[in-house]
Amino acid sequence: MSWRGCIVIPIYNHGASIGGTVQRLLVHGLPIIIVNDGSNAATCAVLEGLQAQHAQSAQLTVLHLPHNQGKGAAVMHGMQHAFAAGFTHALQIDADGQHDCADVPRFVATSQAEPQAVVCGQPIYDQSIPKGRLYGRYITHFWVWVETLSFAIADSMCGYRLYPLMPTCALLAKQRIPTRMDFDTAIVVRLAWRGLPVRNLLTRVTYPPDGVSHFRMLQDNWRISCMHTRLVAGMLLRLPLLLWRKCSKGAVGA
Known about the structure:
Number of strands: 7
Number of domains: 1
Helix content: 40-55%
Distance between the termini: 33 Å
CATH class: Alpha Beta
Shape: globular
Number of helices: 9
Radius of gyration: 18 Å
CATH superfamily: Spore Coat Polysaccharide Biosynthesis Protein SpsA, Chain A
CATH topology: Spore Coat Polysaccharide Biosynthesis Protein SpsA, Chain A
Strand order of the largest sheet: 3-2-1-4-6-5-7
Low-confidence stretches: none
């Protein structure tokens, strides 16, 4: 099957930034699927305008969830829609302008060279990142290395990544994946457990000074802690398989 990719953008109340993000992405020629996760009226109006503006080209599709269900729910809805429409791969990117749209060709080229791999953004931050968010990521990095018995996933929390849709949607059909800020880590760990290779790409990430963050410190950190508890338990259940896979790779490389 030939490589056929699209872009999936979850959005929740990022009406001020989505237009610029779409403009920067259109130049790469990939179809764009925006999933509106129960946004406010102002954002819905912006999305209606974008959809009307690009109706002739059919390069832009806007899907609507009936109420806010979380970033993960929006991404999964977009990926399932893309897979049903015949796409083989989907590039997830944020609506708020954090991610460097100029890196899209690098993600695509890496995926085309290794279609079964999950291509994950490995952020290069500037001074705009909140320090609490930065330090918190290192805690998650440690637990992901424990959960996968591997350093293969350089950053599990970056929402800029490219998925192979067939194995990803097969996972979604069998496994309940968290739907909010714990989504990005949970899904890539479980895909790694299924044997999918992970490739990391360095990419610049900025936090716009007027950006809208939906990260809730107490609630989302609690969700992330619970997620890691479940993943560590899952790792222990899979420990023989993970060790066998690790030893097999070592034997091949010897």
